[in-house]
Amino acid sequence: MSIKVPGYGLVLLAVSQATYFDEEFLDWSYFKLFNEKKYQDETVDAVRFEIFKENRQYIAQHNRKWENGEVSFRIDINEYADLLNHEFNEMRNGNDQNGRSIKGSTFIPPMGFTLPENIDWRSLGAVTPVKNQKYCDSCWAFAAAGALEGQHFRHTGNLVSLSEQNLLDCSVSNNGCKSGLASRAFLDIKKEGGIATESSYSYEATQKLCRLNNATFGASDTGFVQLEFGNETQLAIAVATVGPIAVSLDSSSILFHLYHSGIYDNPLCSDTNLIHAALVVGYGTEKGIDYWLVKNSWGEHWGENGYIKMRRNAGNQCGIATKAVYPLL
Ligand SMILES: *[C@@H]1O[C@H](CO)[C@@H](O)[C@H](O)[C@H]1NC(C)=O
Ligand SMILES: *[C@@H]1O[C@H](CO)[C@@H](O)[C@H](O)[C@H]1NC(C)=O
């Protein structure tokens, strides 16, 4: 475009830059307000703003691909948009990859079973509302409590929310806010004779002294079942016939942190770097793509009201079927 009046083009440019800056700045102000972010000083604020701007740009790029139908999910600014990828990974996961692994009972799938096309345990009443682990690596406790809530519901008909704080404080074979495994939590619950209800022992996002009192137990278990490593067919059979299943997965990508909606499909995802634990509460197919319906523990503002749909039957993507377990009652 040729601009005939000298200086006019320059003025236009300045205006458009100011508008762009304002939009970024407005988004930033809104982000801080909405997520109640308070930084210790202006320097920290400025550093966080830089990270936010980069993430914001990354989101815009990805979502252009989504609009063009090149990817199956959208990402968006959420409360983690001021964090670097590695900062996030240090605070909001917590699956123990290095610790002692224990063997559970073997899953024996029913004979001649035909899988339903989709299942959603939320609509069947087996899933409590989405919870938030906050800045504590306690995903393992949320996955364990979620799976036990499901099994307790199936056995008694009552959905009782169970206490992750109880597990943080009392599950001696796990490491509180540092990491853990759902399977070890099930064995500790068995040893202690039960797990408290959420309402009697509420979440504090930090490890404290164990305050176990059997008068407030909401459920208990007698051990756990382990599915065949990496077998998605078996995971689907278990989800369909047993209920919500605790799984481990690779959540390390920034695409996962900023996930908004659609089917998360990340071929670069690892099936061995399983830093996170979550709960598979169903599965289905959308526009020809199979997915797992996964309940996360990052609050209901994350993803699809706290849930994520993850690509299913694509070679155990993100290791979702690598370490799948559920408690025995
Ligand atoms: C609860 O704990 C008390 C004290 O340890 C014990 O005496 C009681 O038998 C327990 N009750 C049940 C139902 O396990
Ligand atoms: C996965 O599990 C299903 C159901 O138990 C079984 O039929 C199938 O052979 C298993 N696949 C592999 C590769 O082991």
TrEMBL record:
<dbReference type="Pfam" id="PF08246">
    <property type="entry name" value="Inhibitor_I29"/>
</dbReference>
<comment type="similarity">
    <text>Belongs to the peptidase C1 family.</text>
</comment>
<dbReference type="InterPro" id="IPR039417">
    <property type="entry name" value="Peptidase_C1A_papain-like"/>
</dbReference>
<keyword id="KW-0788">Thiol protease</keyword>
<dbReference type="Pfam" id="PF00112">
    <property type="entry name" value="Peptidase_C1"/>
</dbReference>
<keyword id="KW-0645">Protease</keyword>
<dbReference type="InterPro" id="IPR013201">
    <property type="entry name" value="Prot_inhib_I29"/>
</dbReference>
<protein>
    <recommendedName>
        <fullName>cathepsin L</fullName>
        <ecNumber>3.4.22.15</ecNumber>
    </recommendedName>
</protein>
<dbReference type="InterPro" id="IPR000668">
    <property type="entry name" value="Peptidase_C1A_C"/>
</dbReference>
<dbReference type="GO" id="GO:0004197">
    <property type="term" value="F:cysteine-type endopeptidase activity"/>
</dbReference>
<feature type="domain" description="Peptidase C1A papain C-terminal">
    <location>
        <begin position="115"/>
        <end position="328"/>
    </location>
</feature>
<dbReference type="GO" id="GO:0006508">
    <property type="term" value="P:proteolysis"/>
</dbReference>
<dbReference type="InterPro" id="IPR038765">
    <property type="entry name" value="Papain-like_cys_pep_sf"/>
</dbReference>
<dbReference type="InterPro" id="IPR025661">
    <property type="entry name" value="Pept_asp_AS"/>
</dbReference>
<comment type="subunit">
    <text>Dimer of a heavy and a light chain linked by disulfide bonds.</text>
</comment>
<feature type="domain" description="Cathepsin propeptide inhibitor">
    <location>
        <begin position="28"/>
        <end position="88"/>
    </location>
</feature>
<dbReference type="InterPro" id="IPR013128">
    <property type="entry name" value="Peptidase_C1A"/>
</dbReference>
<keyword id="KW-0378">Hydrolase</keyword>
